[in-house]
């Protein structure tokens, strides 16, 4: 680990407190069995005679092989291939009028860990396959862990969590061939036209970032900030790379995949080792809650962006990554990032994909690393946790025998900050009021259960924003690369899906559809 660090004093000690939690002190004595007894040999197993079979009662051999077989935890389904680093969040702006969250108050320095990833590929896949890239941050704040689990694009493919498994399945491998399948991908995308905005980003230059350091990140979802007066605001996060943005062309990405499949992981690690610490500026867009009802795009639809002309970005501060992990498996593979990890001053929104992820992310960690995943050192908050959760597999933190496992109780273990600590507060005259720790909802459009699409706003057509992106944001060279990338990605589609692709891209822009058709005719 490098000793070249920008920050000194308390911020260093707090980050190191996170970085070195759980590490085993170096030992110089002979090795031990897992029960602490000495190991006779790490080189020779026990056999019946010099040339006889091994014996089952060679417990060290059996344990060594059995543990080896279980070294890896199951991959995440999306975001399996990842890497990360540690650092600090520095708040240099003043956004206290919008949020009371302690980590966002002026002058605050908060230790953090990041995990960057691809979405579709397995853990051994190349970093440079055309893909959306995960951009996930955990801040170890004074009030608990706060996770922002986003991507390197400001939007997503679908707006309803019901479609999420289907979308991921369409990007994975075909059940018959075991190969990635263009027909599956385009069949889904063209039948879910809400994907057009994200697919336009994906097929453009941003689909193949050159390094982790040279890409922006986004919270993507709409979140809520609440200030000390209890006033709510809608917020979107933007993380802008001070290194600039650099991307591979499609051919460069393909060549790099063969030369160094782990180029993003290596680049970030080497940069931090040599003291070239990457920095991202933290900015937010703030929308008054009163604007949401009639804004031209539904502000909770994750397939849409908020125009920066309507809601300019506000400077919050920056974060710097200046420490590599001590152990990749323990600190990056087992970091259990979860958008449900929020702290006072931050809430959710009616964004349906966000609502679905609140369950799905924590549940995947329960599957991957067990019900006590939050007891792992990398997942523990800075302060001790007082909870009635107990037992379960791999519980290595436990309460004293006399501690109660139920609430309410006659002991002084405590209860929720709204509870009286003595009773279940279930009387008919008890009303805790609005659940402001989740989010302040000024107009939920009624409380009746329903099933259907988002409330449609004035400019909410699925092809409106990708058309703006194509015509008003991309330059001529970027538009040509976009069409070329699309036509290349279509190789392998069936005739019926091919026709849907032309409809899909012509709906974004007629010129784009025509160019894709012309290029594909040359390639198929």
From TrEMBL:
Its EC number is 1.11.1.6. Residues 32-415 form the Catalase core domain. Keywords: Heme, Hydrogen peroxide, Iron, Metal-binding, Oxidoreductase, Peroxidase. It is an enzyme of class 1 (oxidoreductase). Residues 26-51 are annotated as: Disordered. SMART domains: Catalase (SM01060). Residues 42-51 have a biased composition (Polar residues). Pfam families: Catalase, Catalase-rel. Gene3D superfamilies: Catalase core domain. GO terms for molecular function: catalase activity. InterPro entries: Catalase, Catalase_clade1/3, Catalase_core, Catalase_immune_responsive, Catalase_sf. It comes from the Bacteria. Decomposes hydrogen peroxide into water and oxygen; serves to protect cells from the toxic effects of hydrogen peroxide. Belongs to the catalase family. PANTHER family: CATALASE (PTHR11465). This is catalase. It comes from Aquamicrobium terrae.
